[in-house]
Amino acid sequence: MKTIISTSLVQSIMAKEAFARESSEKIIELAGQIVETFNDGGKLLIFGNGGSAADAQHLAAEFVNRFLINRRPLPALALTTDTSVLTSIGNDFSFDLIFVKQIQALGKPEDMALGISTSGTSANVVKAMATAREMGLKTAALTGGEGTVPEDLSHSCDLILNVPSDSTPHIQETHLWVEHLLCEMVEKTIFC
User: Fold this and answer.
1) CATH number of the domain encompassing residue 48
2) Do residues 157 and 26 lie in contact, with contact meaning Cβ atoms separated by under 8 Å?
3) Mean pLDDT, all residues of the chain
4) Average pLDDT of span 2-8
5) Segments forming the whole domain that contains residue 7
């Protein structure tokens, strides 16, 4: 058991270090785009599946409520939380459209769509990113995998932050780390 703990810890740290090495400029760029979105009166629309859905909700909560600073709420919305909307779209049309239709209903050109997909291949995330781009929203994605970013996603995203790991848990741990980092950077830029 102690070996499992120490191995997991080392591998998680390695994933974060590799991501920070490869993507620090992109992290700064994404934080800047989120700040620009909020300053221009736009909102952040966040979505993903499974653990990434939980991340979307977590990130939206940090922006709407607070992260480290007591400040005014920032407009962020997780498209993963309305079970009536999700299940009606999934039942009447397709699970692949659960985020597309919400972006069509709620998205404006001053907004930003942030898709989270551990693999980068989730069909509903890829389709939503394409829709957001067609509608003129800023688009960004958090992904993972040691290979190249899937072509569908790379064509529909202005900015892709890819964790260079094939371990789903370590990709998700790195996503949470960068999500907290983005909250801190955005808060300090806007309010300090």
Assistant:
1) 3.40.50.10490
2) no
3) 95
4) 93
5) 2-191
